[in-house]
From TrEMBL:
It comes from the Bacteria. The keyword Glycosyltransferase does not apply. Residues 1-23 form the signal peptide. It comes from Ottowia thiooxydans. Keywords: Receptor, Signal. This is Tripartite-type tricarboxylate transporter receptor subunit TctC.
Length: 321
């Protein structure tokens, strides 16, 4: 029995040794981070911040490859089909949790990714025109109930976190409002400032400059705490609406089958970056909150997000194809 145990241990060691060697040598060439958005937006800025810090701290090369379009499905599919060798990562975010329920004919599997690390959350903020008579969440709820179907809310596109935040608000408050989708948050913001729409949910990273510049008024933060950069904006919970927490989340995922030692190495490096005071300050400044944690915690978070938004999508009867 003792000899058999030794033999099995030796076999296990031999099987594990290639993975250990792989992790020790990795990365021997540049690592590509696919960002499923065009350059210049909030997601791209966060990815570049982390990539630049990884370059600096590890002495390795991490590069950004912007592959926007198709509701992020173009970039997501490209990453899912990549060789699972650790040299292709995806900046995963909210759409990974919802696209399987919004699209009937995805060309990648929802479970086609290995969680690596949860980078950050950007809370969703409810904003109205600066001259609006609506001052808080209760005021908006009352106005919506008094005028069913007449209030319009904009978003940066159907199926986005800010669109579904509006749908969750309707379900939670039992109100009827009309969704106006735009091709990006910028044109939606323009119409909100001009009064063509009455309200809008937007990510904190996108809305901060407009709020601080007085062009719009923030009346509610869909998060479990106030943002340091917008300390005067109360959370929904503070206004009596519990569990209305809608983060636009960001994390690295890898193609399914990526070796565990490589995933762990990447996780360790990103967690170290997120502890850097300069990174914490930069994330705070753009309205994002660093998270970190293990790959397992990232996977559990993604599953919880999928379950939550699957219900909202079903109850709201939303389909994008």
């Amino acid at each position: 029995m003792h000899r058999r145990q030794l033999t099995l241990s030796a076999i296990a060691l031999l099987c594990a040794s290639p993975l250990v060697a792989t992790a020790q040598a990795y990365p021997e060439k540049p690592v590509t981070i696919i960002v499923p958005f065009q350059a210049g937006g909030g997601s791209d800025n966060i990815a570049r911040l982390i990539a630049n810090k990884l370059n600096e701290k590890t002495g390795k090369t991490f590069i950004i490859d912007n592959r926007g379009g198709g509701g992020t499905n173009i970039g997501n599919e490209l990453a899912a089909r990549a060789n699972p060798d650790g040299y292709t990562l995806l900046l995963g975010q909210f759409t990974l949790s919802v696209n399987p329920y919004l699209y009937n004919n995805l060309r990648y599997k929802a479970d086609g990714f290995t969680p690596v690390v949860h980078i950050a959350n950007a809370p969703t903020v409810l904003i109205v025109p600066s001259n609006s008579a609506i001052k808080d969440v209760a005021g908006l709820t009352a106005a919506a109930k008094a005028n069913p179907g007449k209030l319009n809310y904009g978003s940066g596109g159907s199926g986005t976190s800010v669109h579904l935040a509006g749908e969750l608000f309707k379900l939670t408050t039992r109100t009827d409002m009309t969704h106006i989708p735009y091709k990006g948050s910028a044109p939606a913001m323009t119409d909100l400032i001009g009064g063509q729409i009455q309200m809008m949910f937007d990510t904190s990273t996108s809305a901060i400059s407009f709020v601080k510049g007085g062009k719009v008024r923030a009346i509610g933060m869909a998060a479990d705490q106030r943002l340091k950069v917008l300390p005067d904006v109360p959370t929904f919970a503070e206004q009596g609406m519990k569990d209305f927490d809608v983060p636009a989340w960001y994390g690295f995922v890898a193609p399914a089958g990526t070796p565990a030692p490589i995933v762990q190495w990447l996780n360790t490096q990103v967690n170290a970056v997120l502890r850097d005071p300069a990174v914490v300050t930069q994330l705070d400044g753009i309205g994002a909150i660093g998270v970190g944690g293990t790959p397992q915690q990232m996977g559990e978070f993604m599953k919880a997000q999928s379950a939550r938004w699957a219900r909202v999508i079903k109850e709201s009867n939303i389909k994008l194809d």
